[in-house]
């Protein structure tokens, strides 16, 4: 097999897509981009400028000034507030347009790449050799995120976390600009009842089947 192996991993918050994508990248020796970090950085930038997350012009300005390498190296973009801000600024068409070329350039690296997000298989890399849509029930995803945040000392009730997850799902799926949707040729992977090893093994088998089909 030869050619460029692009792996697109989409899905809602706390589905396990990030962990699966990073494991796939390590397994295949490919560069990895969590595109959600870009939107989190935009949200953080708007807040740092004391602006409104509903200010589409300011959000686009922040997005166009992003340094992708600095964003990836940042270690303060994983909190609950950053995730909520990301979901809100991601609905601005100008923000998505500003980040489009950056993400596509990452995907176009020689040999391929692994990207995870909400619109990788539909917008960023529609010709990706392997596409996965990773999901889990809202309750399972809320519990995962709740455990993650409380282990870091963030105080939040489980019911509040579930409300956050449902609100973000509705916003991500309902936005006019590149909504979160499973690509027609993506393979659905439900991780509700899987631990990380089982989920990764299932994802790897999906990618291997895609490689056989595409000859990559």
From TrEMBL:
UniProt xrefs under SUPFAM superfamilies: P-loop containing nucleoside triphosphate hydrolases (SSF52540)
Residues noted as binding ATP in the record, renumbered to the chain: 11-19
Gene3D superfamilies: P-loop containing nucleotide triphosphate hydrolases
InterPro entries from the UniProt entry: Cytidylate_kin, Cytidylate_kinase_dom, P-loop_NTPase
Protein origin, superkingdom: Bacteria
Catalysed conversion reaction: dCMP + ATP = dCDP + ADP; CMP + ATP = CDP + ADP
Transmembrane portions of the chain: none
Listed EC numbers: 2.7.4.25
Keywords: ATP-binding, Cytoplasm, Kinase, Nucleotide-binding, Transferase
Pfam families given in the database record: Cytidylate_kin
Cytidylate kinase domain ranges (all copies): 7-202
Gene Ontology MF: a single term: kinase activity
Localization in the cell: Cytoplasm
Family to which this protein belongs: Belongs to the cytidylate kinase family. Type 1 subfamily.
Protein name as catalogued: Cytidylate kinase
Lineage of the organism: Bacteria, Pseudomonadati, Pseudomonadota, Alphaproteobacteria, Caulobacterales
């Amino acid at each position: 097999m030869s050619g460029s192996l692009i792996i697109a991993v989409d899905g809602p918050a706390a589905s396990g897509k990030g962990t699966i994508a990073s494991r796939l990248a390590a397994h295949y020796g490919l560069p990895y981009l969590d595109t959600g970090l870009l939107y989190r950085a935009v949200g953080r930038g708007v807040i740092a400028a004391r602006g409104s997350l509903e200010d589409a012009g300011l959000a686009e300005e922040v997005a166009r000034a992003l340094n992708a390498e600095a964003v990836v190296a940042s270690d303060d973009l994983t909190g609950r507030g950053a995730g909520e801000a990301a979901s809100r600024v991601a609905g601005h068409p100008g923000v998505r347009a500003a980040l489009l070329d950056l993400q596509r350039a990452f995907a176009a690296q020689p040999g391929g790449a692994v990207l995870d997000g909400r619109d990788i298989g539909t917008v960023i890399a529609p010709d990706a050799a392997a596409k996965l849509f990773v999901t889990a029930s809202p309750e399972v995803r809320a519990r995962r995120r709740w455990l993650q945040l409380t282990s870091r000392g963030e105080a939040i009730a489980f019911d509040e976390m579930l409300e956050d997850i449902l609100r973000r799902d509705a916003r991500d799926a309902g936005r006019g600009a590149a909504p979160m949707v499973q690509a027609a040729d993506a393979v659905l992977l439900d991780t509700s009842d899987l631990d990380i090893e089982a989920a990764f093994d299932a994802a790897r088998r999906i990618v291997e089947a895609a490689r056989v089909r595409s000859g990559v």
